[in-house]
Amino acid sequence: MSTITQKPDRNFRSIADTSHVSISDETITPEDPQNYDDILKFSNAQDCKVIMCDINPHGGNREDGVDINRFCSDILIRDCKITSGKKYAITIKGGSESIYLKNLVLFGRGDEGVDIDIGNYSDSTMKKSKNIILENVHRFDGKPVTLRVGHASQIFTVNSNVKKLRLQSLGLKIYVYAKALLVKLKLLG
Length: 189
What we know:
single chain; mainly beta; 14-stranded parallel beta sheet; 44% strand; globular
């Protein structure tokens, strides 16, 4: 479900309910990005690799350049350029684990001022996203990569210019737990 339109996601390229997918040396971009929520979406995918790709080079989509959700594991994104949509360059949530982001250059910055969002609310699970490595992840303009961490743990940064947004991370944690409680109480759908 898109958080922007409140309708089912419309993603340009989806890798869902599968494993052992490898994408390399591609430009992943739609002709009309404003018609899509996420440009590259992983959902319940295992052992997948994205190498030497230019993802969402023009931006303009409604949500994320890359969205990793719903129990993904062992995802490697390496040697790529990723441009944010109106939300984030990358979001990781929904109990996803063992995500390795290496040698990435991020472009653009969404409306919230966050480049990478980890542990946002997911309607699929309240399991934490964990074991996430950011190695040599930088912004094109030399500014720090902004990182917001909610319902997640075991996040490691290696040789990356990353600034954790502490106040926004606290706000995200409160949001995730409050929304989960409201859904459990059937006050939200």
